[in-house]
Amino acid sequence: MKHNLTLTIASLLSILFFTFHLADDIVRGMSPGGLLNLIAVAICVVWLYGTLALAERRSGFVIILLFSLLGLAVPVLHMRGPGVGFGTTRSGGIFFVWTIIALGVTALFSVILSVRGLWSLPWRRHLQPKGLQKLQAPTSQTSGMP
Known about the structure:
The protein is an all-alpha fold. The protein has one domain (about 5-120). The protein contains five helices and no strands. The protein has helices at about 5-30, 35-50, 60-80, 85-90, 95-120. It is elongated. The mean pLDDT is about 80.
């Protein structure tokens, strides 16, 4: 299985479900529509950039990890208190609840895959230019054994 492709798809789905959920919150009156929502647009743009333009890079994995954790917080916040009840009292409540669950699933899956991607990267960069090799000190055998 190609884990980086799977991470890209899961992260894109999380972004899609996040935008569906935000739009549904605005329509239901749970979140006021206004210029404050441009912050959510900026979050989605950075998340999308990290997913597509910085794929397989350390910075891309970190961006996906951080914003997937943010996406994972949405179902947690809605499941505490009156958030889910308010969303289900009007028509289309199943879509509201489904987007919360789908966002939670894809965001948690993205967290797992981004941690795996970070773990598989080399921890240190080699700072030497490509044409140079390390000079090794000659080793001497003083024991006399071959």
